[in-house]
Amino acid sequence: MISIQQIPFGPESFAENPEDRCPCVLVLDVSSSMAGQAINELQQGLIQYRDELLLDDSLASKRVEIAVITFGNTIRVEHDFATARSFVVPLLTANGMTPMAGALLEAVRLVESRKRVYRQNGINYYRPWIFLITDGGPNDGAELWEQAKNALTGGVERKAFSFFAVGVQGVF
Fold first, then answer.
1. Number of helices (H), then strands (E), in the chain
2. Alpha-carbon distance 145 to 103, whole Å?
3. pLDDT tens digit string along 60-111?
């Protein structure tokens, strides 16, 4: 395992790394139902993802920017966008309910915000990716879930981002 300290990442870094970017938001279920083996495997998967970007693809390590949003007890941006070299894998802890819709809306907001930063700094970018990893369905209300579905559907149809949903073992 590689140990890397987090380096603040902002517009000044674009001068040092002017590569085109591909923002990738990982929206991770850390609700109580993910406790045990599921949360441990998710933690190891994050480490492997970061390490493979760093070690196996030098161009991707400069271009892919990773952000992490977790949802469980709360919805939280665990890590804002950073290249693999600056990405520090957050410690995941399972607890709480499954406010998935709110987390997905936060992911859409984060992607749109990052695209504005790229445009303001003259950085080209590839279509952003939003990955949802969960073992269940949302429980933050039908109205919020409709908003999230509309935001995701609209974003995909406009080609504003690509969306991928991954169900872990035991997903309903």
1. 5, 5
2. 10
3. 989 999 999 999 989 999 999 999 889 999 999 999 999 999 999 999 999 9
Residue 77: strand pairing partners: 69
Contact in structure between 101 and 147 (CB atoms under 8 Å): yes
Q: What would the pLDDT profile of 112-135 be if each residue is shown by its tens digit?
A: 999 999 999 999 999 999 999 999
User: How many beta carbons lie within 10 A of that of residue 58, not counting itself?
Assistant: 11
Q: Where are the domains of the chain?
A: 20-167
Q: In what order do the strands lie in the sheet with 162-167?
A: 75-83, 64-71, 22-29, 129-134, 162-167
Cα(163)–Cα(172) distance, rounded to whole angstroms?
19
Which pLDDT value is given to residue 2?
A: 39
Find the mean pLDDT for residues 161-172.
Answer: 83
Instruction: Output the DSSP codes for 103-163.
Output: HHHHHHHHHHHHHHHHHHTT--BPPPEEEEEESS---S-HHHHHHHHHHHHHHHHTTS-EE
Domain 20-167: CATH superfamily, name plus number = von Willebrand factor, type A domain (3.40.50.410)
